[in-house]
Write a structure and sequence with these properties.
With about 240 residues, the protein is of the alpha+beta class. The protein has a single domain (about 5-240), classed as outer membrane lipoprotein receptor (LolB), chain A (Clam). It has helices spanning about 35-50, 105-110, 115-125, 135-145, 240, and strands at about 55-60, 65-75, 80-85, 90-95, 100-105, 125-130, 160, 170-180, 185-195, 200-210, 210-220, 235.
Length: about 240
């Protein structure tokens, strides 16, 4: 998911994955086994690294606005596609082994991604392209591929582990707090990961001051991701838009 600051320039496009500033240190053994915060996080990092793909659905809401932001993404190892929508505004990001692409409607390009009206007009219905090997491509590829999911995992310190979820669900539950900064309010996050088979994220929920909420739902691990390239003649180089 792209940060609002990152949308201002294609070069800084990144998936928004929680940056944790954790408060207290807790590592609990759970149930009859020997699972601890450290062992669960270590296993999750390892198992995410083995995956070839995942489907990600994100919903962000705030009491200050009635418009929810929705993100749907299919993340593969070397390719991916992400659609961001706010009401009727939409932008789409793609990455292939050779190029990265951005497209959207006029209001999506300006309000969601942060382009100027002149830049959005320059793009029109085309796709902005960045070539593999450029810094812009590297940032995009790092954010819309499955390896980026590791970024949601918190540090061991300050994270509490439990298996309080109903046994039938067979989930580990990780909870941590993020301290307020000059630009972000304090928040609390809960992440569930599978306790059976591969230790993979299932659902993450972050709430800030009870007024803002974001959920990330992970599914379809390992399913094939196919990303089509835009039609020939319908792309515009990033350098032309950013000039």
């Amino acid at each position: 998911m792209l940060s609002r600051a990152g949308r201002l320039a294609f070069a800084s496009a990144v998936v928004v994955l929680p940056t944790v500033v954790l408060l207290s240190a807790t590592a609990e053994a759970t149930g009859a086994g020997i699972s601890t915060t450290r062992s669960v996080l270590t296993a999750a990092k390892r198992d995410i690294g083995k995956q070839t793909s995942v489907h990600l659905a994100v919903t962000s809401s705030s009491r200050s606005t009635s418009v929810e932001e929705h993100i749907k993404a299919d993340l593969g190892t070397v390719s991916g596609i992400e659609t961001i929508s706010e009401g009727s505004e939409t932008v789409v990001l793609k990455v292939t082994p050779s190029y990265g692409y951005l497209s959207g409607d006029s209001s999506g390009l300006t309000k969601i991604f942060g382009m100027t009206s002149a830049q959005a007009k320059e793009v029109g219905k085309d796709w902005v392209s960045v070539k593999a090997g450029t810094s812009q491509y590297k940032d995009l590829a790092a954010s819309i591929t499955v390896s980026s999911v590791v970024g949601i995992l918190p540090a061991v310190k300050g994270t509490k582990l439990s298996t309080a979820a109903p046994p039938a669900k067979k989930l580990y539950t990780l909870k941590w707090d993020t301290a307020a900064t000059s630009s972000e309010p304090a928040s609390a996050t809960t992440l569930t990961v599978s306790a059976v088979g591969a230790t993979l994220p299932v659902l993450e929920t972050t709430t800030a001051l009870g007024t803002e909420k974001e959920t990330l739902a992970f599914s379809d691990w390992g399913e094939q991701v196919v990303v089509s390239t835009p039609p020939a003649g319908s792309t515009i180089p990033f350098s032309k838009v950013s000039a």
